[in-house]
Amino acid sequence: MGDIKFPENFYWGAATSAHQVEGNQNNDWADWERKNAKRLVKEAGMYWQEWQQEKFPEMFEEENYISGVACKHYELFREDFETAKNLGHNAHRFSIEWSRIEPKEGCFDEGAIRHYQKVVNALLELGMEPFVTLYHWTLPLWFCRKGGWLNKKSPIYFERYVRKVSSALKGIRFFITINEPNIYASQSYLKGSWPPQKKNFFLYKRVLNNLVKAHCQAYSVIKKINSQIQVGIAKNIVYFEAVNGNLVNSSLEKLSDYFHNLWFLNKIRNYQDFIGLNYYFHSRINFGFNKNKNKLVSDLGWEIYPKGIYFALKLASKFKKPIFITENGVADKEDKIRSWFIENHLLWVGKAIGEGINVKGYFYWSLLDNFEWDKGFWPRFGLVEVDYKTQKRKIRQSALVYKKIIEQNSL
Ligand code: BGC
User: Fold this and answer.
1) At what angle do helices 154-168 and 201-225 cross, to 10 degrees?
2) Is position 24 within any domain?
3) Separation of CA 294 and ligand 1 centre (Å)
4) For residue 2, how far is its CA from the centre of ligand 1 (angstroms)?
5) Which of 370, 358, 15, 384 is nearest to 180 (CA)?
6) What is the CATH number of the domain that holds 119?
7) pLDDT above 80 (res 2)
8) Domain assignment of residue 28, given as a range
9) How far is residue 405's CA from residue 399's CA, in Å, rounded to a whole number?
10) Ligand 1 closest atom vs CA 381
11) Is the residue at 2 inside a domain?
């Protein structure tokens, strides 16, 4: 410990998103959950391996797939932020739920706006910097009825919502317009596994293009309202690694970097003040993808590969913008590997910083156990464990390891 020093004023925190923690949502995902829970129960047995089925029997229960009251964070946000503060955090990333702010087209709910102002104020009072995501995958029902992101007016609808939020809410210095646009677009319009479950390459492209426009328009609106506010997106970056120099593998690596990692960032290159980087995945390429060795995997079976965050940072640094790691985390119910996970990812972040890459913050995913989309509640990413029956929180050991790193600002 002590060899790697992080820059002064480094932002340390954790992230959440509205739908995954707040509870009581009325949006496209809540709707979809009710319609698909039964099917997801049926499919669990085919999809997950035996050890996962044994460890997480709740994947065979319908309620696992319904976000319901989630972590009741809409009510408990103050307590949760106090916990984060006690864990040493000086920043926090959360998202605003569009369907609460604009439940009907063009009608804004002033109560919801007041709520999010309280959320921002609670963070500021605790001395934590709010990083606010405007769209983390869930949509108002009226917007979906109009075709969602397929509608050519969708960027205009988004801009109207962003204008309202960014002019009404005070005290925010960092906005993330969209969380992982290409993951959303591919899950929802290419693989067809998330709402609205369309499977069509042309629709997928249309959605991506509308998301580019939506981001750029939102960027311009926020900057017009207050040019000091820093705006970016949270981009999922995969470390694609060709195993040897052969032409097939290295071409696959270049193409994947270009399309998956860089395309969106290239499109918005003049409309971003920073890059938000979400790192979870490594894909070893050997005449195909994901030829990983999987020496260590999470409860979801995802390979844990800390070195990849270093390469992801190197790739993102080509845009010459400050970088915030807006997500990095692991599903680990028993908290067996989380401390190791955090330390080792941070070692590689430290190495990148040592080589001159401008990394300004790190947000662990997630502060709390939460609702993991189509997988439901069983994967547990939290620094803080949530008992969904009682809503009791319990701090995991790894949260204290993370706290120590934060306090020393070094590893
Ligand atoms: C998303 C989160 C999600 C996490 C773990 C990220 O891509 O932004 O909402 O919970 O991955 O899967």
Assistant:
1) 30
2) yes
3) 20
4) 31
5) 15
6) 3.20.20.80
7) no
8) 11-408
9) 10
10) 5
11) no
